[in-house]
Amino acid sequence: MTAPFECEVRFLISDIAAFRARLEALGAVNDVQYAFTDHYFRPREWSWDPRTRALRIREWREPARESELLLTCNEVVRVDRLACKRSLFPEGKLCLHRGAREDCERICDALGFAWWLDVVKSDCGICDVPGLGQAIYERVEGLGWTSEVEVEGSDPAAAVARIEWKLASLGVPPDAVTDEPMVVLVAERLGLLPPFSR
Description:
Largest sheet: 8 strands, antiparallel, barrel
Order of helices and strands: EHEEEEEHEEEHEH
CATH class: Mainly Beta
Number of domains: 1
CATH architecture: Beta Barrel
Distance between the termini: 27 Å
Shape: globular
């Protein structure tokens, strides 16, 4: 569900049944299930901030498909009181390779990267909400239920306004969201985040 120069925020879902009921009340259709594990890699010597860059292997579990080696580069954009993560690539995530997980790992090794941590997502769903676009829910191991709001981000001010509108439609207050990438949230919970400043 990548939009050009994707801008996104994410939030924790305290009550998944209530959240799914909200989506149904908004007319959600086409609920598609998925699950995957993102295996994150880092340079052997820490030289980049995982808040702004990530190299990962996405190992699909549902539906079954080839693994993908993905590169993301982001910046934080703040408009008024809301900050969101914005992709520096119009494609959002760049797919560097598709194939067996082992082949992706060999590419990471050749680039000088070592495995860092896994983000395991299960019981995930994506649906279409009339007038709102796509909505997701994901159970993240070690973090709980999460969701995100993503919009096209070539105009950051317009993107933030659209994010705020979508959050209001979902009943999520702006102060309940974060611009942090998922890997940073999980790494913080595990005590694995290196000491980078914002």
